[in-house]
Amino acid sequence: MKIILSLITSLSLLTACGSTGAENQSEIAKGKVPASCEIPKVVAEFAAQVPESKFVPTDWQPLPDTDLAAVLDNNGIACTYGIQVAEVGGTVLWTPNAENVWEKRKTSWIEFGETPIDLPGIDETAAYVLKEGTESGEMHVWKVNLLINDVWIQVGASFFQDVEEALPIIKAAIVATQ
């Protein structure tokens, strides 16, 4: 699983409170990065597709100039979910779009073959998807990067076949930023 997750990740704010006014409307629209990976809704959505999935603690050691490094260097969080012994699951990254990290990483996504996508039922600012090769019904690489409420979220897993399968997990990842 670590190899798959490394491949996925290698290829790859605060909410206003207590005040009012137009200045706070932009603050209210900002999401926040989850404080921990133990997010029941995200775990449940992974388990709905891969029964018995759970949060898998991971000792991240990102390579420079990767999505994982950008997320961790930008006060983000990286979380793996699935069944560790079966090496099946996925990783969700969350980070604030501080210092415009989204734009800085977007160029590499396009170079790796990611294409723009409009995610059904989601009001994202922008999103890119990467789908590479299938063998025996398993995707080698599948991930989506989306920017929503000034938070960059990346959802990647080796078991997704299409966006429809990924949507419940993507939506749970978005809810975790509220």
Can I get a quick summary?
With 178 residues, the chain is α+β, with helices and mostly antiparallel strands.
Question: What is the topology?
Answer:
Elements: H1 2-10, H2 22-28, H3 40-49, E1 54-56, H4 67-73, E2 77-83, E3 88-96, H5 101-111, E4 115-116, E5 126-135, E6 138-148, E7 151-157, H6 163-175
Antiparallel strand pairs: 1-2, 2-3, 3-7, 4-5, 5-6, 6-7
Structure write-up:
The chain is globular, with a radius of gyration of 16 Å. It starts with a helix and ends with a helix. The chain has one domain (2-175): Protein Transport Mog1p, Chain A (3-Layer(aba) Sandwich). α3 runs antiparallel to α6. Helices cover 32% and strands 28% of the residues. The longest helix is centred in the C-terminal third of the chain and has 13 residues, at 163-175. The protein has 178 residues and is α+β, with helices and mostly antiparallel strands.
Instruction: Assign the CATH topology.
Output: Protein Transport Mog1p, Chain A
* Broad shape: globular
Radius of gyration: 16 Å
Q: What is the CATH architecture annotation?
A: 3-Layer(aba) Sandwich
Number of domain units: 1
The level 1 CATH classification is: Alpha Beta
Largest sheet: 7 strands, antiparallel
How many strand segments?
A: 7
Amino-to-carboxy terminus distance: 29 Å
Mean pLDDT: 81
Assembly classification: single chain
Number of helices: 6
| Helical proportion, percent range | 25-40%
Runs with pLDDT <50, length 5+?
A: 1-28
